[in-house]
Amino acid sequence: MKYRNRINRFALPAVALLPLLASQALFAQAPAPKGAAAAAEEGGGRPKPGPEPKDKAKPAPRLPDGKVDLNGKGVWAPIWVLDWADTKYVDKAVDVPFTPAGLKLYNERKANLSKDDPEGYCLPPGVPRYTGTPYPFQILQMPDKVVILYEGASHMYRTFYMDGRKHTDPAALNPTWMGESIGHWEGNDTLVVDTIGFNGKTWLDYVGHPTSEDLHVIERYSRPDSLTLQYDVTIEDKQMYTKPWNTRFFVKFRPGWDLMEYVCLENNKDLVHIGAAAQPK
After folding, report:
1. What is the pTM (predicted TM-score) of this model?
2. Domains of the chain by range and CATH?
């Protein structure tokens, strides 16, 4: 049986988390690989991932129907994406097109060191933040739906309905943390997921890019090689942003790993840091 040792990032005050990233990897499993990447993992946190070198890459596995297999025997292990607009974590820098209201809220969160971050209360990270939370996930493909199982945060799941249905009428939607997700395949290589119906209580990332109930997210999942998931996302929210904006990052596959039990509320010291009577904003 393999074991994965990792810290509970909610067991520390939020102000202490950023320096920690530069000094300790968030989790590790199995014998460490050799080389520069291993040194980065052991010393200064995992490096920003990308596709495998072309001379070493193996083709992505396929299902019997020809579609790409977005999982297999293992898990996807993302780095912690603190900022969807920063090249420390994503493919290209983004000049986020804030509305005045969105910029005001974002600046308030930066000024108070993200003390009201809903994740500090073990609330669901939402979309797209869950994909950039540093705990593994698995993608389960079925004919009429795709399900993502998440190890971290609130140990939740998402369902992408693939049966041809349309979104619920916005007037009838019950706003939720994860929204309503409808998916379809673009050819055999890319899963496209359209999600609406959010409750506006999530942050896009740790630095505090805001959302409202008007949030509309389009995700594109593809697998350029056997060990890499490419995640492209378009974010639209007319209350917070003047136009849609896009970002991309990569997640590495860990063959042979399994999801483990993780209870966010256990030993959660962050609530003490932000004040027991405080409520997320």
Report:
1. 0.82
2. 10-23+71-274 (2.40.128.20)
